[in-house]
Automatic annotation (TrEMBL):
Native organism: Dyadobacter endophyticus
Entries under PROSITE patterns matching the protein: PROKAR_LIPOPROTEIN
Protein name per Swiss-Prot or TrEMBL: YD repeat-containing protein
Length: 295
């Protein structure tokens, strides 16, 4: 990608969205892009030209073209599944609902439905219609997601951050999962690799997605931002820890001249850091476009 990103990516975007719309045989199940209430709402409007992620490896993303929620995520198509996103206005500015419906491609069978209540750009509650489970989301004083609590139970996930004084930024450092028996899993996040001659420095996260291994919808940007840098290492630790295996992930990125991650390589070590047995590697290209309403 060149520095004159807008001109180049608009043309690419036309081709990408055209192909996405033409090639998905499950689109018969996709709801119309038009939202009934088309009044202007500054909290819902998207800039006339905005960089959008349109593919993440084998996942293709589409966006609503018209209406109040122009530019908001409309559909994610994966190799075996697809998810449709629809939006409903509560009548209060900055207060709306998102319905996420996930289907199998082979049969168009609905397998999961979740409704999210969003207030002032943050999800405050979700309703898992499929499992009949509700979750409440709380945030810290800087707007970072602090806790996800299962309504009516002791199940919760705590998000912990570190503060980098030089960057004046908070970064997610770990999530802790617990239930009535206490904490049972910890997921830790690191933003650099190694040290000295083997170091891979932190890389700015210019187009943030929700963190891996967080149980959040990866592409719904309604939970705040988790870091200013890209995650490069993840370790999953069973709790209480008594020498069990700790699955380990390492991530490498290619960054273009505009600062966007255009590829992501993952190395997975099921038996933990440094153990090569069962190692798995995957690669994903990331493509963007300068999205313009109506394309």
């Amino acid at each position: 990608m060149k520095l004159n990103r807008t001109t180049t990516l608009v043309i690419q975007g036309m081709l990408v969205l055209g192909l996405l719309g033409a090639c998905q045989n499950e689109d018969v199940m996709t709801p119309a892009d038009t939202i009934g209430n088309t009044s202007v709402d500054n909290n819902a409007k998207v800039a006339a030209s905005e960089i959008k992620l349109v593919s993440d490896g084998d996942n293709n993303l589409q966006y609503h073209k018209t209406g109040r929620y122009t530019g908001y995520l409309s559909k994610v198509s994966e190799p075996s599944y697809y998810t449709n996103y629809s939006y409903n206005d509560s009548g209060v500015q900055g207060d709306y609902w998102i319905t996420s419906k996930r289907y199998t491609k082979s049969t168009n069978t609905l397998i999961k439905e979740i409704q999210y209540h969003v207030v002032n750009k943050r999800c405050i509650k979700s309703f898992n219609i499929t499992d009949n489970q509700n979750s409440i989301y709380s945030y810290n004083e800087t707007g970072r997601l602090n806790t996800i609590s299962r309504e009516g139970s002791s199940i919760k996930v705590d998000f912990n951050y570190i503060y980098d004084a030089a960057a004046d930024a908070e970064r997610l450092t770990k999530t802790t999962y617990s239930n009535s028996n206490g904490a049972y899993k910890e997921v830790s996040f690191l933003y650099s690799i190694g040290s000295g001659n083997w170091a891979v420095a932190p890389k700015p996260d210019k187009y943030f997605l929700n963190p891996v291994h967080s149980d959040l919808d990866k592409y719904l940007r309604i939970f705040g931002k988790f870091s200013d840098m890209l995650v490069q290492q993840v370790t999953i630790t069973p709790l209480p820890y008594t020498n069990q295996t700790k699955p380990y992930y390492k991530y490498f990125y290619s960054i273009d001249s505009d600062g966007y991650a255009i590829s992501r390589s993952q190395e997975y070590y099921p038996l933990g850091y440094g153990n090569q047995a069962g190692k798995q590697s995957t690669y994903a290209a990331l493509n963007y476009m300068a999205w313009v309403p109506g394309i």
